[in-house]
Amino acid sequence: MKFVILSDLHIVPPGETSHGVDTGARARRAAAELAANHADAAFCVLLGDLADHGAPEAYAVLRDALAPLHMPVHFMLGNHDNRTNLLAAFPEAAHAGDGFVQSVRDTELGRFIFLDSHEPGHVNGLLCPTRLAWLQARLDEVAGQPTYVFVHHPPFNVGNFMDDIKLTAPGLAAMLKAHGNVQHLFSGHTHRHSSGIWNGIPFANVGAVHYNCGLQLGGIDDSIQYRYDTLGYSSVVLLDAEQMIVHPNEYISPGTPLDPAMFPTGPLKAIIADGGRVPGHH
Ligand SMILES: [Fe+2]
After folding, report:
1. pTM score, two decimals?
2. How far is the CA of 149 from the centre of ligand 1 (A)?
3. Could you give all domains of the chain from N- to C-terminal order, each with its CATH number?
């Protein structure tokens, strides 16, 4: 089975940019590449931060971008999203009936669980008791069977400033381990692909469709410069009974020149404080 992931699209309304990038155009390009080369995927996961400021106009751009993708889509929220606006734009987005956009997909290879870690007004993520209770119930239904869990905010540290805005979810590790067969955890949010093991659970933190960050370890202080890897990535995952592999997918053609001048330079702290704007861009 193949499935595909688009994470951290950060779409802005037409005519605007984010970090100097026309993120609507990037989303269209990423989706078009998946439609052209991976139309055989069983489903697509939108792993959160779909809209940069949660604007209705941005979700309309997303709807257009997804038009060529003729496969089921699982919508997930990130910190940048707006739950009300997303559900208005995509009433088909599955939700649990308790106000949260959480869903399940059952396949011959196991259960896939998609969580909602969006907490309005917060950059970090949260799984509150209501959301954790829903997760516990979904895990209990398939105890011991292969299960894959998706959440926008990683519950683990990646070793840079993102560690301050990761997921808060009391008891999550113990809950997943008690299930007995959580095969893999997928997250986004960090704009940088990484993989590893958290409390015995293998994870892939997938890269962003928007810009990605160069390796910049450590916290934020006045000396740290923002480093961009200008390419955007989608992810293509191949899964069978024996193995799974996660491919970062460079949907922007290698060799396509990107103008470094379009990206902000300078201290990371100042760029974040300025919302990632570049002089001369919106
Ligand atoms: Fe995020």
Report:
1. 0.90
2. 17
3. 2-273 (3.60.21.10)
